[in-house]
């Protein structure tokens, strides 16, 4: 049964901001890309003469950050993080805490907090591939909060900072006995109806997903959600795409998810802004001298592997962001790119 479910999920898409492209909708890859570009632009603002480019792409941003020769490295790093982001759906399709389903706010937050700590540990020990993987995973969970909970329905327009700060409490989560959605809703193409007292008292809830749910609780909704009842897949609160149960709020959810992802990235940089991360031996001579920026722009990869990539022909190893960058070097007249997924020369 489980293997059949996984196969079906892979074929038609799973219960999350979609990993497949849908018209007029943003998927996890879109959200992650936009967030990384915006966060990177903020870091590059300290560079002399920097102007935020329009349109904001990996190529235009690399040029504005005076690293246009390494735009390909930047793109590779983004793809790696996005890859591990979407893998969360295939690795943990039924894990409520990985998607903030079924009111698992405490457990979902714990995943993010532990992930942030792990990223710091990985970066300090030079395990940047592991940092990329973990970053992709916790970004997925963070982004799903805004699609799977009623945060947007409560009128919130800014991220829930409690999800990335251990000392903050998640605001007003529903308890196990509190009914959150109406049970006799008719199909009016507007999805499930959240109870008035939940909205008025700003009580936080999220949809249940899978085979069953507690009485009176909201469902996630969608083809694969059996908690809604027979032929009631519409009766949910998810905002994964514009054609989802609460799809009219999809763009608002996606935009807040982007802002939340930017906040998480900024938290990582602030937590790891230490001189030990600057590896002068793998940075190009013309790197910007501001310590924060140069640690950000220079490749922070494995020194052993970096030196192994170097040749006597004047190797060049650099990238645009510690955990965003791939590996690029010159072997004679041939430029070679080595990504951090395979850890081998790929092109």
Judged by helices, strands and strand pairing, the structural class is mainly alpha
Spatial separation of the terminal alpha carbons: 40 Å
Counted up, domains total 2
* Count of helix runs: 10
Largest sheet: 2 strands, antiparallel
Quote the average pLDDT: 76
For the biggest β-sheet, the strand order reads 1-2
Shape: elongated
Q: Hey, roughly how much beta strand do the residues contain? A: under 5%
Helix/strand order: HHHHHHHHHHEE
Helix content: 25-40%
Number of strands: 2
Radius of gyration: 22 Å
Low-confidence stretches: 1-15, 274-322, 326-347
Q: What features would you describe in this structure?
A:
There is one protein chain. The chain has 347 residues and is mainly α. It folds into 2 domains: 2-271, no CATH class; 275-338, no CATH class. 40% of the residues lie in helices and 3% in strands. It is built from 10 helices and 2 strands, in the order H-H-H-H-H-H-H-H-H-H-E-E. The protein has helices spanning 2-12, 28-44, 58-64, 71-91, 105-124, 128-148, 196-200, 250-271, 291-297, 303-309, and strands at residues 327-331, 334-338. Strands 1-2 form a two-stranded antiparallel ribbon. Helix 2 packs across helix 8, helix 4 (71-91) packs across helix 6 and helix 6 (128-148) packs antiparallel against helix 8. The longest helix is centred in the C-terminal third of the chain and has 22 residues, at 250-271. Residues 1-15, 274-322 and 326-347 have low confidence and may be disordered.
């Amino acid at each position: 049964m489980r293997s059949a479910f996984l196969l079906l999920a892979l074929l038609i898409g799973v219960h999350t901001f979609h990993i497949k492209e849908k018209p007029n909708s943003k998927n996890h890859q879109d959200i992650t890309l936009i967030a990384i570009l915006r966060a990177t632009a903020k870091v590059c603002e300290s560079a002399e003469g920097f102007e935020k480019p329009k349109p904001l792409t990996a190529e235009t941003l690399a040029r504005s950050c005076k690293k246009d020769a390494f735009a390909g490295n930047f793109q590779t790093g983004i793809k790696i993080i996005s890859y591990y982001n979407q893998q969360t759906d295939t690795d943990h399709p039924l894990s409520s805490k990985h998607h903030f389903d079924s009111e698992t706010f405490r457990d979902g937050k714990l995943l993010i907090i532990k992930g942030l700590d792990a990223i710091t540990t990985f970066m300090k020990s030079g395990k940047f591939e592991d940092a990329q993987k973990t970053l992709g995973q916790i970004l997925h969970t963070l982004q799903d909060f805004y699609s799977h909970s009623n945060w947007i329905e409560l009128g919130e327009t800014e991220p829930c900072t409690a999800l990335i700060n251990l000392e903050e409490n998640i605001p007003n989560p529903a308890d196990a006995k509190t009914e959150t959605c109406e049970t006799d809703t008719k199909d009016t193409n507007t999805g499930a109806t959240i109870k008035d007292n939940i909205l008025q008292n700003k009580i936080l809830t999220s949809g249940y997903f899978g085979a069953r749910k507690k009485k009176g609780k909201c469902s996630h909704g969608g083809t694969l959600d059996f908690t809604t009842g027979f032929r009631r897949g519409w009766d949910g609160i998810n905002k994964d795409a514009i054609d989802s149960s609460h799809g009219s709020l999809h763009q608002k959810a996606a935009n807040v998810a982007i802002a939340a992802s930017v906040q998480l990235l900024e938290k990582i940089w602030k937590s790891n802004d230490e001189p030990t991360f600057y590896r002068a031996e793998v940075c190009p001579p013309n790197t910007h001298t501001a310590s924060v920026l140069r640690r950000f722009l220079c490749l922070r990869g494995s020194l052993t592997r970096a030196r192994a990539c170097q040749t006597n022909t004047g190797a060049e190893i650099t990238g645009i962001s510690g955990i965003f960058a791939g590996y690029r070097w010159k072997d004679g007249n041939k430029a070679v790119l080595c990504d951090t997924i395979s850890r081998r020369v790929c092109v």
